[in-house]
Amino acid sequence: MKPEGNWSEQFGPLSVLMGAVVGQAQEQVARRAARYAADLAQLRNIDPPDETINPAGFAGWNGDGRTIEDMLGSAVAHSGQAFSEAKALVAPEDFNASEAAKAALEEGRRFIATSVATAMADTARAAASASLTATPQVIGYIRMLNPPSCSRCVVLAGRFYKWNAGFARHPGCDCVHIPETVANASGGLANPDAYFHSLGETQQNRIFTNAGAQAIRDGADISAVVNARSGMSVAQDLNGRKVFATSTGTTKRGWFGGGYAARKYGDTDWFNQFAVAKSGQKHVPPVRLMPESIYQLASDRTEAIALLKRYGFFL
Predict the structure, then answer these.
(1) DSSP characters for 190-236?
(2) Rounded CA separation 57/108 (Å)
(3) What are 84-109's pLDDT values in tens digits?
(4) Cβ–Cβ < 8 Å for 195, 188
(5) pTM of the entire structure?
(6) In this structure, are strands 241-243 and 245-246 parallel, antiparallel, or unpaired?
């Protein structure tokens, strides 16, 4: 993009192209996640998943429910804010608009890189969790690090979560969940203290701060030093309820919003109760629940699998 041009006009065509590329990559990630679940089942000599992942169902949206194009489009506003902040820091006669614009676009590029990486990790986790849900012998998962890891993730390493528990993460988090049956193979990557002591002092200080790392070396509890939930996100508000939802596929022509899913699976109650009406809107698109909220709302595993099918996550 040219710093001196209209950023929104330049970014429009780019966001469409990037959205298509990211969507294709998400489908590939979902396929790999399904293979991951099948490979783990074979490794532990347990039955494979009962259902087949629908890779397309995991593409087109990110972890907070926005479409990928909407997420990418935020980069323009992000760059605009960076430009305004730079302008406010200096006197008008000292402000170099050209250099500030270049720096602002670089901030937008970094925003996109982080957002896409987070979306990919979320896609992998969502597809893997769906596969694990459809694997009857898996009762839950262990949170495992993917080094290098930040302090917020380190203190959560090794925690056990039921199969229907959401995965709290911050932007850029690349932790993974592994079935409870293979937790013993993860070593220090699922043990906060073991991971901390596997690092050199310089790395410890960088990740946990100098004072925090010293406190842990002196015997302080690692979870007491780090706020385990700082920066983590698990849900968004929808009509007063904490749920994960996405608008992807909910348009009148969409697989979900057009009613195809409801007709295929018969029961429309779950679709209609989350419909959100807007003033003057002829087509009222139902909210498409994401896997995390399906796990929260389902009464048992059987219902969770049925809902994953109805919301387009299984074929």
Answers:
(1) G-HHHHHHHS-HHHHHHHH-HHHHHHHHTT--HHHHS-TTTT-B--E
(2) 28
(3) 999 988 888 889 999 999 999 999 99
(4) yes
(5) 0.67
(6) unpaired
